[in-house]
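Two entries, shown back to back:
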Amino acid sequence: MDARFIATAMATAFTIIDPIGMIPMTLAATTRVTPQRRNQIVDQAVIVAAAIILFMGVVGRVLLDYLGVTLPAFMIAGGILLFLIAIDMLFARPTRTKRTQEEEREAAAGENPAVFPLAVPMIAGPGTIATVLLLVNLSHGDRLELTVVAVAYACALFVTWLCMRASSFLMRLIGTTGIHVITRLLGIILAALAVQFVLNGLAQTPLLRR
C-alpha cells in the first residue's frame, strides 16, 4: 500500500468537503428551524451526500470510459477546478462552484434545505465529485486503494456530520475569524493538491511524453 496515496486521499477528501466551512452554511440554511429539526436536516443532508459520492465513485469510471475521457485529461481538468475552489478558500469567500446567489435565495425560501443546498452542492458538489473520480481512477481498480478512498470520504463525512450537528456551539467557540483561518489553511493544501493533479496529468499525456 502506497502511503502517499493514503495521505492524498485523506487530504483531498477533507479539504474539498471542508467540514469547518460547513458550520456557517448549516446555520444559515437552518436559521428558521428548531435545534431538533436542524439535527434531522443535517442527518438527511449527510446521508444524501454519501449516497451521491458512492454512486459517482461506482459509475464514474464507467461513464468516463464511455465518453472517451482519458485519465490524464480528467486529472488536468479536475486539478484546474480544484485550484479555482482553492483560490476562493484562500480568500475566505463563498465559491460559486458550490452555490450561486440564485441558489441561496431558493434555499432561503425552501422548507427543507437537507438535499438542496446542504447535500448538493455544498457537500457533494462538483469539486467533491471531481476528486472522487480522480482518486478512483488513480487507484486503477486496486481494491485496497478503492477501500482507502471509501474510508477517506467516510471519515470526512463523519467529521462533517459532527461539525454540522454542533454548528451552534462550534460557531461560538471558533468564531468567524477562526473558521476563515482554518479554511485558508485547507485552501493552501487544496491548491497544492490541485497543482500536483495537473502536473501528474501532463506527465501522463502521450504527446508530452515523447
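entry 2 starts here
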Amino acid sequence: MNFIFAIFASIVVSLISFIGAITLFLNERILQRVLLALVGFSAGSLIGGAFLHLLPESFNKKCDYLLPFGIVISGFTLFFYNGKIFVMASLS
C-alpha cells in the first residue's frame, strides 16, 4: 500500500511541476492575470519548505528553539520592506 501511495504522490508532484511549462504557451494577457497567483504559490512553497524541513534541522541543545524562527521571520520582513521601499522609490 505504501508503494502505491509513493507512486501516486510522485505522479502528482510531477504534474504540478508542469505548471511552469504550461505558462510558456499562454498569451501575455492571460499570463499577467495568473502571474501573481503563481508567484504566491512559489513563495508559499519556499516558505513552507523552510519552516517545515530546514528549520527543525537547525535545532540543537545549545540554541534556543525560537532563535532560528526569529532569524527567518526577520529576514522575510527585511526583504519585504526592502522590496516595498525600492518599488516606491522607482514610482516617484
